[in-house]
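call fold(seq) -> tokens
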Amino acid sequence: MAQKDFIQRNAKNIPCLILIGMPGAGKTTIGRLLARKIHWPYLDSDHLIEATYGRRLQDIVDATDKEGFLDIESQVVCSIRAQRLVLGTGGSVVYRQKAMQHLKSLGPIVHLDIPLELVKERIASNPERGIAIGPNQTLADIYQERDALYRQWSDFSCNNSAKSQEASVEYILSQLPKDFFL
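ret:
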């Protein structure tokens, strides 16, 4: 049997599972745990941006203005063609409708929700984290701006501040349609 025939005969359109949320919301941690639990690969779109441009995310953010970075992020996210993948996105991906429409076409979008105080605490422990923030904007400003967008684009939210990591993974899996993995 030819490889192409094998792939076409055995291909099932199984969607991806996409995680969105603020920096520090746990997209990478929960994404990796989810991927391990369901035996799928995990991809962090920030790492894909770094690999595409051959630079650290913070260096890319520093070399462009906010709008320029958002365009770069959208372009890279829109290039993703995958199935059976857990995808953790950058927190700013929700600013570009084209990117979000593409993500919606890949599968359900889960918003990992945490309060602003926890975002501040987690970001303080990783000052090298690349964050797309405009001049004169505060973390509170972008939290408020993004929160509405996360809720608009997500299929459901998971409060990731009160649960254990394992409980968050189980909650997300319980919210998916029963035939999601078939």
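The first strand starts at residue 17 and ends at 20.
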